[in-house]
Amino acid sequence: MKRLWKLIALNLGIILANTLVFSKAFLGITLAVGNPLAFAFGLTTILMSIGIFVWGNARLLSPPAPKILIGGVDSAKKLEDCLPLLKQNEEKKSFARLLNQAENQIARFTRRRETALQILGQRFSPTELSYGHFAAAINGIEDVMAKNCKSIVNRLAAFDEADFQMLKRQGQKTGTTEARMGVYQEYFRFVADAVEDNEQILLKLDMLLSEITKLDSLEDGELEQMPAMQEIDDLIKNAKYYRQ
Length: 244
Known about the structure:
This protein is an all-alpha fold.
């Protein structure tokens, strides 16, 4: 909506400026060749109006540039901050499927988190221990997913897409080219494993939500005994062993 108002203001401004210059009620400038100064002023006004019209409308109608985090991976404090970092690597077409899956996982986790906290607020008071435990668990698995996504970004930053495509096109393979291709395959395995780890995290969260919604009531302390909650706790405790 803000861009629409800017677009309207820009074009009204151009119309108003030309009205003031060329209307006989105001300056009354004409392009008559008998008055060189008026001709030059009028022609300049027209050319500037055309230039501003084209440039301004093109800029306002074009989609906004993607958010870029200054400072790279270290600037990503939350899982959502990883999304623009992943999108910055979309030109590496070899990872298109995995990148799309990782971006989708961030959106899915955001929806699951909102649903989980909503259910939690219905079952517990924020002052109860179970509420704090569950909220901390959600934050913990979000941190693990963010760590995986940042690891993916780091690997993609080091991946040379042009060199990989050149190796794929080479007909004759040598020991060196095979070794280089093996290195690149390791990149794919790493990213695929990180994406699979995130998928397992989402699965554990889905299992916990399923267990909670099956119960008519939930006593304080009962949440901690649920198998899915224990699996999430174990996952967070073992997060330091996740891939870097």
